[in-house]
Amino acid sequence: MSENWNQNMTDELIPGLDKTTDEVAWDLYRKAIRFGTWDPAAIDLSQDKKDFESLDEDLKGYLIHFCTGFLDAEENVALKFCPWIMLGSSTEQQAFLSTQLLEEFKHTEFFMRYFKEVLGRERISGVKNIVQQKLDERAKKMLAALEQGPEEREAALVEGLTHYQGIIEGVQAMTGYDVYEAVFGSKGLLPGLGEAFTRIKQDEGRHVGFGLRMLKLFARKPEHAKRIRELYDEYLPHILIRYDQPVIVDGQEYPTPPEVRGRERLTKMFERRLKDIFGTSVTV
Ligand SMILES: [Fe+2]
Ligand SMILES: [Fe+2]
Description:
By secondary structure, the protein is an all-alpha fold. The protein is built from 12 helices and 2 strands. The protein has one domain: Ribonucleotide Reductase, subunit A (Orthogonal Bundle), CATH 1.10.620. It is 73% helix and 2% strand. The protein has a two-stranded antiparallel ribbon with strand order 1-2. It binds fe (ii) ion (2 copies). The site of one fe (ii) ion has 5 residues, from helix 6 and helix 10. One fe (ii) ion binds next to helix 6 and helix 10. It holds the Pfam family Ribonuc_red_sm.
């Protein structure tokens, strides 16, 4: 897996604008039905368990913190996702978005298993992720928009897609996959986690591909373009904080491995997403 993986994935997977949104949604729905059939319970974690036991204490602490971030995030997005489906404006769009709901629960299941079978403990409580916490408010706004007119529904969907597909999945999660690769995968460590990330990234390719394509279309309207850009700018400091906060597990602080380079990876991914949506280089 290379550092360029996300770039390549986005290039290939932002579906073309020559098809209608409903055609694209239906294609992605069919892809999810045919190819999104991996089973989180079937991934072999025996080598991961051995690798974890032989890691030094600092890396053990870092991995527990890292996996807590993923489990919290996958679970939170799964639990909050229904309004995104309900705001889909056709059967095709809702069909596709419903596959995303199930997939987020599969990702959650994998990390629940990882804690139980590899890390042998519960996740850490209280790891802050402000962008995730803001999903509560977002979901409420989206539900309220269901009762309003088409313009309000569209505006709520634009904000929801920016927040979830554009920022949480498109920037935060994708940075996490690269961090795994740099710290563990490139050293041949934790192959079960690597296999899960390969599968998760295929699912995320559909989620992010659909979301970014929608945002690219919506950004043609100046009022939506303005709102998308404002949300990205509002959330950038919150996503950067994630990699600046100390790694504390059970009251003890662990160093962040030098390969993580979180700020740098996040900033690059952030710029890439803006380019995907607005088509030009944008300075942060
Ligand atoms: Fe996910
Ligand atoms: Fe996703």
